[in-house]
Each structure stands twice: as structure tokens, then as C-alpha cells.
């Protein structure tokens, strides 16, 4: 069997059905082998889009997304999305072609040490030097990508190895065991800390979303009556409508929810990763008791020294805790209600403002009121991300995606494209700014080409909005953030999309509803946004937060 055929058969054996990428010379044998493979190859116009699509595939399914590039510039173009998958804990396997092994030792055309370059942004990075090792390499890649905290893996396949013949066969798929990693003694210690605490808070992070821990977490809250908050990436495990929700923590300035953490004496962190929000922001003075429940041991940080660490499969751990809870653990006192009321008034106020350009709160309120609980919103990185995190209420896991680990701009449209491809019966909306839109505009043509009807809500303000906002907060002025945009509405139409420019606030919901009915191509709604609200929020919080 040809090595490139074996490579794909190993992927098929492990359940892979799709691959995203750009064809090149050094991955040509894989491309030809794909003609006889059950794996669907989705050709993207840029390798970054391929990596972002693979990252979203991993986040939604738990099965590694597979992206493919050639050597040199193909490998460097792929790197940003791979780094995001690794830091945001999404299982992903990147495959890159490489030069013939007979020229890897010397300076030659497009040759570079990709494996070494990728070591900093992957859990494992390797090259295949013997075709007979392909089954082991691919099985190991899957195991590493999905074990513990998921992440990215790189496999490099030199072009001469891809042509070799081999008698090897795919391995039997490995069975990923549930890691329980807890004991009765540890659970008892958790209950003891819970009983002794006066003002405990449950802090929900990305790991809880990744494991879809909704039901055991909601059972835990029903049995304990705790107040809960979530990070940007922890949205949806607990609905924003939960009667003791403190909403989102993580804004790059002091938000009202920090007052609740200041009063808390115990924080139970569930699936929380330090890349999501520094613990020094919510544990000032490092005086709180902390219970760490996650897929991996806690990172060492002077503001995050857990009293107990429960490491393993989150739903299993939470179910074990729930089994030992009694009516004695139920909190009936509204110990953080004054702060919760303050948060709700702040988050839910001014959502009916009809002025134009549209206010961020109004845009997100209208999107939330239009989408069903199970529909998906994918946020890009920019000023709008802060508003999505603070204002948009998710009600289920994996319905609101915000990268807050690696935080790469340009990820929302490729991510929404893949989310809609995987979930054709759900509405999928990408929210992005005009900066991020131009960074991944090639995702639109891929969506047109394969007929995937996701919707883009494009916040237009003609600036790199978040950088402008941060410059104004720090220096009371801004520098080199102006964008000279083309007509983005016409550009989207030229790509073959359904596109509308919103001219009146009252038109937004009807146009969004119409866009969600388009079934054969992406839609782009260009929405002028009033980002004077950014500095107003900064000054407001400076005045009201203790």
C-alpha cells in the first residue's frame, strides 16, 4: 500500500470524515490519495481558514479537527489557527507536507524546520521518517490531542515518505477511558470547605463547556444554592437566566462582578484555565480558599494555590460530589443578592435604545432575542468581543464561542462556517468587526463554494476598535488604528453572499431573520456601530465599581 493511502486509512479508522486545507506540491500524494478516500476535503483559500475550521470542529465534537498545508509558507500560514486550538484547548491535528528527506539537512527551496517551530504551539510535534510507523504516529497523535486538556498536534509528512510502499495496516482505535481521579476523601474535603464557607462562588471555565457539564452543574447549583459566574469561554453551562447568576467575569477592567469575588471566601473553579482570566484579577490578596476541578492539575500562580485539586472527567467528578450533597448543603440566604441586582441592572439596562448607529447592547439583545437556545454564536476578537462576553446570554454549552486564550483575530467566520457545516439544522451567527472581517474574508468564498449558509453580523466602525479603546483608556488618545475600508456590503455581494447594510436600528431584526432563512450561501449584515459606548462603559464602571 502507498504510504499516503495508509495515512488516510488510519484517519478513516479513527472516525475522521473531513479535512480542511490548501493543496500544494509537497502534499500532492495525500491530495491524490484523497480521490479514493471517504474523507471529504474542503479546500480553503488560505491555510489560516483551514486551521480555524479544524479548531471549531474539535471544540464542537471533541474529535480532532484535521487541517492540511504544504511546507514553508503553507506551514507558517497554518500556525495561527493551530496555536489558537492549543491554547484554547481544542483537539486538532495539523498535517503538513515537507521536502524530500534527502534535502532536509541543507538550505533548500522552502525548507524549514517546521517541527521545531510548532513545538511551542502544540502538545506534540513530529515528523514521519518511516512509512511503517504511520499507524502508530497517527494513533499517538489522536491520543495526545484528546487526553487531559485537549490541544494541537503536528504531523509532518515528507514528500518522498508519502510515496513509499508499506505493508503496515491501521491500528485498532484506542478506547479513551474516563479519568475519574477522585476519592471519597477528596469529595468529603470539598463538602467540608463548602459547609464552612460563608460566601462561596462557583467559577465556570472552558473545560466545563468542553465536557458539556451542564446537567451535573445545574444539579449541583440546585442542591447548594450557590451563586455562579463564568469566564468568556465558560458561557452556557449555566444559563444566564439562572436566578443566582453573576454573569461573566473577565473584562479587561474592573467590572461589577469583581465586587462579588471580593466578598467571596471560597471559589470552586470548574474547568477554569488561567489563560482565560488571570486569578490575580479576582483573587486580589490571594486570600480565598480555592477548589480546583479540571482535566489537569492547576498551573502554579501566587494568586491560585488550590486547597484541593480534583483532576479528571468533570461530569464524573461533579456527579460524585452531587451524590454526597444533602439538604444541609442548601443555601437559602441571598448572600450576594445586592451585588447580583447591581450586575443585572448594569447588564440588562439600555437594551432598547433605538438610536443609530446601533449601540452594542442593542445589537446583542436583538441577536439573543432572535436566536433559539440551541443556536450558535461565534465571536471574533475585537471590541465587540468584550460586549459579547458581557452582554450575550448563553443558555447551553457550545452555543457561544469566544476565544480568550490565544485570542486571534479572524477566527469567527471560519469557525461559524464549520459550526454551520456540522449543524445544518441550527442557526449560526459570526459576530466580527471590520478588522477581523478583512483578515478572514476568504472564508466567505469557501462558504459560497460549498453552500454553507452561516450569517455574519459585521460591526462597522472603521477602526481597530479594541486597540483604539485600550489606547484611549491608557493615554486618552489613539494612534494608527484608522481603517480605510472599502464598501464592505458590496464586497460581500461580489463574493456571492447575500448582503445588506443596515440603515435603521429597527431594520436589524427583520434583516437578521431574513438572513437566517437563506439556505444556499453565507449572509453578511453590515451594521454601523456606535463605539462611543466603549469609553462610556469605562468611565461608568470606574464610577460604580468599588
Give the CA-CA distance, first to last residue: 69 Å
* Helix content percent band: 25-40%
Q: Detail the poorly predicted runs.
A: none
- The mean pLDDT is 93
Radius of gyration: 24 Å
Features:
40% helix; six-stranded parallel beta sheet; 546 residues; globular; single chain; alpha/beta
Could you characterize the architecture of this molecule?
Strand 10, helix 12 (279-282) and strand 11 (289-294) form a beta-alpha-beta unit. The chain has a 6-stranded parallel beta sheet, with helices on both faces. Strands 9-8-7-10-11-12 form a 6-stranded parallel beta sheet, with helices on both faces. It has 546 residues and is α/β, with parallel strands linked by helices. It is globular and about 70 Å long. The longest helix has 15 residues, at 47-61. The protein contains 23 helices and 18 strands.
In short:
By secondary structure, the chain is of the alpha/beta class. It is built from 23 helices and 18 strands.
Fold blueprint:
Layout (H helix, E strand, L loop, with lengths): L2 H11 L4 E4 L6 H6 L6 E4 L3 H15 L3 E5 L3 H15 L4 E7 L15 H5 L5 E4 L6 H13 L5 E7 H5 L20 H13 L3 E5 L1 H5 L3 H11 L2 E4 L14 E4 L8 H7 L2 E5 L8 H4 L6 E6 L13 E4 L2 H11 L12 H12 L11 H11 L5 E4 L3 H9 L8 E3 L9 H11 L5 E6 H6 L2 H9 L4 E6 L4 H11 L12 H7 L3 E4 L6 H8 L7 E6 L3 H13 L2
Parallel strand pairs: 1-2, 1-3, 3-4, 4-6, 5-6, 7-8, 7-10, 8-9, 10-11, 11-12, 13-14, 13-15, 15-16, 16-18, 17-18
Helix pairs in contact: 1-6, 3-4, 3-17, 10-13, 15-16, 15-22
Amino acid at each position: 500500500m502507498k504510504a499516503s493511502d495508509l495515512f488516510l486509512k488510519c484517519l478513516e479508522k479513527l472516525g475522521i470524515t473531513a479535512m480542511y486545507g490548501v493543496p500544494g506540491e509537497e502534499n500532492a500524494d495525500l491530495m491524490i490519495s484523497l480521490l479514493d478516500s471517504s474523507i471529504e476535503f474542503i479546500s480553503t483559500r488560505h491555510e489560516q481558514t483551514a486551521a480555524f475550521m479544524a479548531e471549531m470542529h474539535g471544540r464542537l465534537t471533541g474529535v480532532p479537527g484535521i487541517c492540511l498545508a504544504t511546507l514553508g509558507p503553507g506551514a507558517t500560514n497554518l500556525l495561527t489557527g493551530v496555536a489558537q486550538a492549543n491554547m484554547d484547548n481544542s483537539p486538532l491535528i495539523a498535517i503538513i507536507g515537507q521536502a524530500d528527506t534527502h534535502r532536509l539537512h541543507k538550505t533548500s527551496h522552502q525548507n524549514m524546520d517546521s517541527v521545531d517551530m510548532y513545538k511551542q504551539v502544540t502538545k506534540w510535534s513530529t515528523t514521519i521518517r518511516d512509512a511503517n510507523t504511520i499507524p502508530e504516529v497517527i494513533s499517538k497523535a489522536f491520543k495526545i490531542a484528546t487526553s487531559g486538556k485537549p490541544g494541537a498536534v503536528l504531523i509532518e509528512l515528507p514528500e518522498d515518505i508519502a510515496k513509499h510502499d508499506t505493508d503496515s495496516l491501521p491500528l485498532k482505535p484506542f478506547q479513551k477511558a474516563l479519568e475519574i481521579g477522585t476519592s471519597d476523601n477528596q469529595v468529603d474535603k470539598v463538602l467540608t470547605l463548602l459547609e464552612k464557607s460563608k460566601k462561596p462562588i462557583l467559577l465556570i471555565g472552558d473545560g466545563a463547556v468542553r465536557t458539556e457539564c451542564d446537567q451535573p452543574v445545574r444539579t449541583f447549583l440546585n442542591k447548594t444554592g450557590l451563586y455562579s459566574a463564568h469566564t468568556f469561554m465558560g458561557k452556557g453551562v449555566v444559563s444566564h437566566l439562572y436566578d443566582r447568576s453573576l454573569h461573566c467575569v473577565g473584562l479587561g477592567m474592573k467590572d461589577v462582578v469583581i465586587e462579588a469575588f471580593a466578598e467571596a471566601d471560597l471559589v470552586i473553579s470548574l474547568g477554569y484555565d488561567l489563560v482565560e482570566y488571570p486569578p490575580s484579577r479576582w483573587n486580589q490578596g490571594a486570600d480565598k480558599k480555592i477548589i480546583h476541578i479540571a482535566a489537569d492539575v492547576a498551573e502554579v500562580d501566587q494568586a491560585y494555590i488550590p486547597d484541593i485539586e480534583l483532576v479528571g472527567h468533570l461530569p464524573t467528578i461533579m456527579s460524585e460530589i452531587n451524590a454526597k450533597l444533602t439538604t444541609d448543603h442548601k443555601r437559602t440566604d441571598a448572600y450576594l443578592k445586592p451585588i447580583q441586582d447591581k450586575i443585572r441592572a448594569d447588564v440588562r439596562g439600555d437594551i432598547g435604545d433605538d438610536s443609530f448607529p446601533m449601540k452594542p447592547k442593542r445589537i446583542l439583545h436583538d441577536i439573543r432575542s432572535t436566536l433559539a437556545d440551541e443556536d450558535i454564536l461565534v465571536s471574533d476578537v475585537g471590541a465587540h468581543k468584550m460586549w459579547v462576553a458581557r452582554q450575550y446570554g448563553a443558555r447551553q454549552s457550545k452555543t457561544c464561542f469566544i476565544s480568550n486564550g490565544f485570542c486571534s483575530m479572524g477566527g469567527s467566520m471560519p469557525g461559524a462556517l464549520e459550526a454551520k457545516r456540522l449543524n445544518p439544522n441550527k442557526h449560526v451567527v459570526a459576530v466580527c468587526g471590520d478588522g477581523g472581517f478583512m483578515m478572514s474574508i476568504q472564508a466567505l468564498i469557501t462558504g459560497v463554494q460549498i453552500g454553507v449558509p452561516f450569517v455574519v453580523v459585521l460591526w462597522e466602525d472603521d477602526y481597530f476598535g479594541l486597540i483604539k479603546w485600550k489606547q484611549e483608556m491608557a493615554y486618552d488618545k489613539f494612534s494608527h488604528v484608522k481603517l480605510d475600508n472599502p464598501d464592505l456590503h458590496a464586497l460581500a455581494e461580489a463574493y456571492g453572499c447575500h448582503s445588506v447594510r443596515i440603515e435603521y436600528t429597527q431594520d436589524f431584526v427583520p434583516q437578521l431573520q431574513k438572513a437566517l432563512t437563506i439556505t444556499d450561501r453565507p449572509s453578511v449584515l453590515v451594521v454601523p456601530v456606535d463605539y462611543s459606548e466603549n469609553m462610556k462603559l469605562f468611565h461608568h464602571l470606574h464610577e460604580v465599581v468599588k
